[in-house]
Design brief:
Helices cover 39% and strands 16% of the residues. By secondary structure, the chain is α/β, with parallel strands linked by helices. It has one domain: Rossmann fold (3-Layer(aba) Sandwich), CATH 3.40.50. It has a four-stranded parallel sheet, sandwiched between helices. Strands 1-2 form a two-stranded parallel sheet. It has a two-stranded parallel sheet with strand order 6-9. β4, α5 and β5 form a beta-alpha-beta unit. α1 packs across α7, α4 packs parallel to α5 and α8 packs across α10. It is globular and about 55 Å long. It starts with a helix and ends with a helix. The mean pLDDT is 95.
Length: 276
């Protein structure tokens, strides 16, 4: 999402500064930033004199967060505090990218004012990071084409495996609202431009099981959906518990933003076009 946001912002004429750890970004100016180093974070952000800060960096490996609990806290919470405080002291508006995992997943279709109750360390640290940020954008299962270096997301991983003829096990009992990175980046950028304060659910418009999401990807790209084997969460060798239904209600942003949450059908159409 961060790479796509940088790409879109640069195309709109913004001066873009991208934080990184190991690999300088090909889009905009690179700013080496170690979220575990308080002095470095503060100095580099304040020296950059930003107007808007989009904080999308996180330790997103859910199982690793469960095992290395201190590191998860250091990056997802303490690191966010460092970014938020330095950005605020420099007069910048801070937009924080949070997660559907702040909810326990007992019922789904969560609205912004629903009770939060994360079931794993990742969700706990992301929820802690929300405090004090000007704008919080909660999202779900980000996927999409990569404009530059970036994480291989669920959709790209699945497409690669199916093209190789590999069978994959995908759970049928986890419900999500998958979110195209292009759609999310445009929504978040609009929120920053308009300096919208508060919490917003910025996710895809389609509530679907992860298995059915995989099937729709296979169909959309003309791949063999028969290679997708239905599975259950209890069969997976996950270290961290996952919420069963963490789908997000996007009604608030649908009525507020010019860039609307997209349906899965429209999102996959855009993804096919972006991937050529």
């Amino acid at each position: 999402m961060g790479s796509k946001l940088a790409e879109i912002a640069a195309d709109r004429g913004y001066e873009v500064i991208c934080g990184y750890v190991d690999h300088p970004p090909p889009i905009g100016e690179g700013l080496k930033l170690d979220l575990t180093d308080p002095g470095e974070v503060r100095r580099r952000i304040i020296d950059s004199e930003p107007d808007l800060v989009f904080h999308a960096a996180a330790l997103t490996d859910v199982d690793r967060c469960e095992v290395d609990r201190d590191l998860a806290m250091k990056i997802n919470f303490r690191g966010t505090e460092l970014v938020r405080d330095a950005a605020s002291d420099s007069g910048a508006f801070v937009i924080y990218v949070s997660s559907d995992y702040v909810f326990d997943g007992d019922r789904g279709c969560y609205r912004e004012d629903d009770q939060t109750d994360p079931v794993n360390r990742y969700g706990q640290t992301k929820l802690l990071g929300e405090g004090g940020c000007d704008c919080v954008a909660r999202t779900s299962v980000i996927y999409g084409a990569l404009p530059a270096r970036g994480k291989v997301n669920f959709a790209l991983w699945l497409i690669e495996r199916l093209r190789a003829g590999d069978e994959v096990k995908i759970v049928t009992d986890q419900i999500i609202t998958p979110t195209l990175n292009t759609n999310l980046a445009k929504m978040i950028l609009e929120a920053g431009e308009r300096k919208l304060e508060g919490i917003y659910h910025m996710a895809g418009a389609t509530r679907i099981s992860r298995y059915d999401f995989a099937v729709e990807i296979a169909r959309g790209f003309g791949l063999d959906e028969g290679l997708i084997a239905p599975s259950k969460m209890e069969e997976m060798s996950w270290k961290a518990k996952r919420p069963v239904d963490s789908s997000l209600d996007t009604g608030k942003v649908r009525g507020l933003l010019e860039e609307k949450p997209l349906s899965l059908k429209e999102s996959l159409r855009i993804l096919r076009a972006e991937m050529g």
